[in-house]
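Why does this matter for the project? Reviewers at the last site visit asked to see concrete outputs rather than summary tables. In response, this paragraph embeds two records directly. Each consists of the residue sequence and, immediately after it, the corresponding structure tokens. Nothing has been edited or filtered.
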Amino acid sequence: MNKDMLIRLLALNLGIAAANIAVFSSGLLAVDLFGSALEKAFGSAFLVLSGSGLVYGNYKLLSEPEKAIPIGAKSTKEDYVEALNEHRGLETFERNIDLLLDQIERLQKKNKTIRDILLQIFNASEISYQKFDAVIAEVENIFFKNIRSIINKLNAFDEDDYNFIKKQRNAGAQRNSGAFSEEIMEEKFKVYNEYIRFVKEATEDNEQILLKLDKLLLEISGLNCIESGELEQMAGMIEIDNLIKQAKYYKN
């Protein structure tokens, strides 16, 4: 349950409670359920209405589908984590989501370690450090673009329909139900498998990015100094540079 939902539930229940206090409190309207016939009628009707409002209002809010958290180019790490956590109820992608959350933490840790090591060799104002920092930032951008694409797929994925189709397909019940033809059922199943394939491959792409950062970290962790121009010739930097070029190519 997200923060907005909790606020709305709290506002509803506190509002109904406040209305009851105002009606029955001796210091306010002071309606007496055991008083005159008019007070009894009004008080009883108010209790029924407020009780109905309480039950129906809570039901509507709790049964209302949660809105997907918007993810854009300027979203923060926390935005991505929150958006992924919103999809923890999707059993089809449970392991992927756990891995993606872990990948985000590992990316942040590796990038911080790389920058800390470079600051032992370069001053933050040096061109060599700034070039390297820009490369790391671009790698991080590619990483989160992958996650943004995954979140869009998770937003669109209808797990209830997928489970229904899978159950019907596995049991062969579609031949007897008459609801869908076998061809339609197979096409729907293929579409959902494309969602699953995409999420799996995009998650693997991010793991490849982390592996390239590991290789780079291994190279620079044993260095005491780097001469001008040597940074660009390091095997780890060449791999990352190729990754960035490839990502730009596919973007276009």
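We now turn to the second protein, recorded in exactly the same manner.
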Amino acid sequence: MSDIAIVGGHGHVARLLIPLLTERGDLPVALVRNPDHEADLPGAAIRLLDIEASTVDDFATAFTDCDAVVFAAGGGPDGKIERKKSVDLEGSLKSIEAAERLGIKRFIQVSAMGVDSDPGEDAGEVWEAYVHAKRDADTALRASSLDWTIIRPGALTDDDGTGRVTVAETTDRAEIPRADVAALIAAALVDDHTIGKQFEAISGDTPIAEALANL
């Protein structure tokens, strides 16, 4: 049994990940800002963490006794440029530093497809800020001492998961259900072959375990 800290513990992907972890005997530790969210997260241990207001020390306290960290937080489609930096980038940087401080080696980060390329001139300031935040967070994680995996999903949907994906360093632009992203995270946590791997993920025909083994 492993204790898995989930930053962004009330997000859509996290809520789908939690039951996958509990079903196999792990303990999801959901880090949330609002204590009222506990009712939405059956099976998870709840610890309070405001990503934007918290220090690295606060993150380290929230991660205490955990065996792995999943960074699944995001500022969301709120149109606020500053939240792309404070949540998507700085939240990741504080998570990385706290994990290193505690000696937690395993770290999985949910990023986004295509963020290594600058967006086009017509992308808008908010999207540009989002791309840069995700890119810089991934760069920092790759440079860390952690046993990292970076998952870069395509456009997220609320469709039912299929358990079948296409994963590669780069893929075509396409959709993937959040349920399958959650399943990818759960599988990667117990697959050491994914350590040091960064990959894009979309819906496909290959069972998740097989797709990860073929990376």
